[in-house]
Design goal:
This protein is α/β, with parallel strands linked by helices. It has 7 helices and 7 strands; from the N terminus they run βαβααββαβαββαα. The chain has one domain: Flavodoxin domain (Rossmann fold, 3-Layer(aba) Sandwich), CATH 3.40.50. This is FMN reductase.
Length: 203
């Protein structure tokens, strides 16, 4: 059965290196496991996220994004690094997701920034966040600085190799779990008489 893989991208520009990294990670994962990929662009939901933080209620568009994330068989989450941590937009999105919704969820964490000086943010900011959310974070995190793009000739800094390793780990975790049940439009309607019959009660 095909799995569902959701990419959460917190890139602010269009196009962005954050979205590019998310796409490459998704493609690499889909090569390892049959998965339908959905991308959630947080820049398109910024106003909805802010309103949800204030009102406590998601818009239909934000609600669909939250449902996609919480129902996914696996997640790839990618954020730009600002001031040595994940972006406020990225954190705000996960703040509006109901507590416990990501428990046990296979997650691959990734980030982008201008220089490699920000690479440790994956370990001291993103990994603790998803550990707190009780997600199952794969061992390899992927960081891409501006200099990494097109640097495949450097064995120690090969972005493609890191992407493939992390994607393989995510695919392996997803493959070891049953696929999520497909979403239904509505609960099954059972007439009252049929419910009584199931209980052995006659009217």
């Amino acid at each position: 059965m095909s799995r569902t893989l959701v990419v959460v991208s917190a890139g602010l520009s269009s196009p962005s290196s954050t979205r590019l990294l998310g796409d490459r990670l998704a493609q690499a994962t889909a090569r390892e496991i049959d998965a339908a990929v959905t991308v959630v662009e947080l820049r398109d939901l910024a106003g909805d996220i802010a309103n949800n933080l204030v009102t406590g209620f998601p818009s239909p568009k934000l609600g669909d994004a939250i449902d996609a994330v919480t129902r996914a068989d696996g997640l790839i989450v990618v954020t730009p690094i600002f001031n040595a941590s994940y972006s406020g937009l990225f954190k705000s999105f996960f703040d509006v997701i109901e507590a416990g919704s990501l428990q046990g969820k296979p997650v691959l964490i990734a980030a982008t920034a201008g220089t490699a000086r920000h690479s440790l943010a994956l370990e001291f900011a993103l990994r603790p966040l998803f550990a707190y959310l009780r997600a199952d974070v794969v061992p390899t995190a992927v960081f891409a600085a501006s200099a990494d793009w097109g640097a495949s000739d450097r064995p120690d800094g090969d972005l493609t190799a890191r992407i493939d390793r992390a994607a393989g780990e995510l695919a392996a975790v997803m493959a070891g779990r049953p696929a999520a049940a497909p979403e239904t439009d509505a609960d099954e309607f059972v007439p009252f008489e049929a419910q009584l019959a199931r209980l052995g009660i006659t009217s």
